[in-house]
Structure formats: C-alpha cells, structure tokens
Amino acid sequence: MNRKPQQKKSKLQFTAVFWSAICHLCGFLTVLGVLSFAFMNQAALGALQSMAQTNDLTTGLLYEGLLTIGMAACIWGMIYIAYLVVSAQIAASRTSRLVQSRGAILTETLIVLPVFLLFTFGLAQLTINHMAGLLTTLATYEAGRTLSVWVPEATTRRNNASKAVAIDKATAAAAGVLAPVVAPGLAACNPNSATLTKQLKGLQSAGNVDMGMVARQPSSFAAALDKSLLPLRGITKTRIAYCSTTVNYVEQGGNTISTSLRYKHKSAMPLVKILFGSIDTVGGSTGYFSSIDRSYVVTKQIAPNVVDPY
Fold it and tell me: I need a surface site. Which of 28, 39, 87, 144 has the fewest CB within 10 A?
C-alpha cells in the first residue's frame, strides 16, 4: 500500500538530483567558457588549431588542458560555496533570535571572511598563472614555427636577414599569443622592433587604440582581472608581452631547431601576489614576477635560394 508514495518520493528525489546536476554542469561550462573567452585570442586559437591539424599536441599541452578543466570546476565550486554561505547568513538574520546570537553570527563572519577572501584571491591568481602557462606553450609553438621559416633565411643572409631578425619575428609572434594574459598596470616598454611596429599598426587598423605607456597598479579584485575594453588594451598588452618574452634557439644536428621561450608573468592580484612570484623589473615595471619556461623542437623549412628570385 505504501509503494506508490515511496515511488513518488524516489522519483521526486531523482528529478531534484538530475536538475541539480544539470545546473552544476551549466555553471561549470559557463566558467570554462569565460576563461576561454577572456584569455584566448585569435592568435592563440590559431596556434591551437594548427597544433591539432599537424598532430603536434604535446602531452604537456594536454595536461594543461585538463588542469584548465579542473580550474574551472574549482572556480564554480567556490561560487557555489559562496552562494550557500550567503544564503545561510541571510536565512539566519531573518529568524527571530536574540541579539547575542546575531552578535555571534557577526563574529563568525568576521573570522571566516578573511580566510575566504585569501582563498578566493589565491585561486583567481593561480588560475591566471595557469592560463599564462597554457598560452606560453602555444606562444612557444608559434615562435618555433616562425623560426623554422626565418632561420634558413638568416643562414643564407638573404634580404639582410640575420639571427636577430629571426628572433625579433619569433618574439613578436609569441607576444601576439601572450597579450591577453598580461597583467594590467605594467608600464608599457617601447622596444625597437620593426616586426612589432607593423603588428601594432595592424591592431590600430582593426580599431584598437594606443593608450600609451601608463602604469597603474591594480588595487582591487576587479582591477586585477582588467575589466577595460579590449580595443583599449590590445596594443599596450601586446607591447608589454613583447618586453616580457625572451626567445632563443639552437640549430640541432640535421634540420631541426630547438626553440626556448621564457615569459615573465606579473602577479597583480591584491593580498596574494607576494605568494606567486619574486621581485623583479620587466619592461620598466617592478613587481612580483614568475618565470614560465617552455621549449619546442621544430623542423626547418627548405633552405631558400641565396638570391631572391623576385
């Protein structure tokens, strides 16, 4: 006789669990989409697509991709926990309790809040640093592809090409990938790079505005995430990414090139930036920087004619 009520209760519980899982999945996918949209530009997506098409997706990149998924899950978990805590505090404040109980709730909040803020800021900075590592991997791939074309040109000295020219072009290619993850508040350097100058002119033609060399230290969570419009920070961040990147290469035996890249990323999140780097000066800006090193081996292109046929 009691089977129908029990079956109905079980069905309601299953429905509740099902829709709860759907909501959590949607929240996780939303966070993952925000991370991809915020830190992946056209250059990075192009490099990722090229790596997939040429079967150059390394184990390290796949591992970083899985870590990105884990980071998105942790961020969604933090958002959900914050929602539960706030909901519990609101529910507690609405109940008819003594003033002493309300004072106890306030004391508990004051104890928990600093720890929660440190954990939140730390997770945010850790996520940004992780995305910087992921983009550094893609930037190294772009730098290696650029060197595979320009190292033979530099070897034959065609069109006045040299090792410095090859490195300049590889650094500019890497900077285009790394630009979205550059921390706000850096004083933009002004490198003497013909390749970068052409790249920045292209950004201006696309509607980006050169905001000049302005240094502003982020003083809040939102400022550290850089909420300024994309057309207002594209040129400045690309310039800073160039100054923060060091590219070098070694021609190995046969027809391969070993590309090495070091990107110095500045931690900008208040309260926790001291935990994610050491004091350094990059591009005229002093702060807490962490060095990210990557390497990539690529095959050189066929050696060109010594004399340009055109």
Answer: 87
3-state secondary structure of 257: strand
Angle at 265 (CA atoms; ends 288, 259), nearest 5 degrees: 135
Cβ atoms of residues 304 and 153 within 8 Å: yes
| Rounded Cα distance, 295 and 251, in Å | 13
Strands ordered across the beta sheet of 278-282: 245-251, 256-266, 285-299, 278-282
* DSSP per-residue letters across 138-206: HHHHHHHHHHHHHHHHHHHTGGG--HHHHHHHHHHHHHHHHGGGSPTTPPP-----HHHHHHHHHHHHT
Q: What is the pLDDT of residues 124-140, one digit of tens each?
A: 888 889 999 999 999 99
Q: What is the largest CA-CA distance in the chain?
A: 95
The predicted model scores a pTM of: 0.82
Label residue 80 left, alpha or beta by phi (over 0 means left) and psi (-120 to 50 means alpha). Answer: alpha
Gap between the Cα atoms of 298 and 310, Å rounded: 27
Q: How many CB atoms lie within 10 A of CB 300?
A: 18
Sign of the four-CA dihedral 284, 289, 295, 296: negative
Token pair recorded at residue 222: 């939102």
Do the Cβ atoms of 215 and 144 come closer than 8 Å?
A: no
pLDDT band at 30 (very low <50, low <70, confident <90, very high): very high
